[in-house]
Design brief:
single chain, 73 residues, alpha+beta, two-stranded parallel sheet, 23% helix, dihydrofolate reductase activity
């Protein structure tokens, strides 16, 4: 079994989210890398990240959504 991890956070504060968005400017090449790397894979993420993704970006992946408040499935 092969397990890979992609994790990004802000250098100084180590934040990885800010009010449901990235705490840094959107970088197109980063998103393209993430999409290509996670195709046909299982992606683990929080509920806010899941809800922020456009429907078309959810295709070709299986998701595990982690939340202490989730009521839908």
């Amino acid at each position: 079994m092969n397990i890979s991890l992609i994790f990004a956070n802000e250098l100084i504060t180590r934040a990885f989210g800010n009010q449901g968005k990235l705490p840094w400017q959107f970088i197109k090449e980063d998103m393209q890398f993430f999409q290509k790397t996670t195709e046909n894979s299982v992606v683990v993420m929080g509920l806010n990240t899941w809800r922020s993704l456009p429907k078309m970006k959810k295709l070709g992946r299986d998701f595990i959504v982690i939340s202490s408040t989730i009521t839908e499935h």
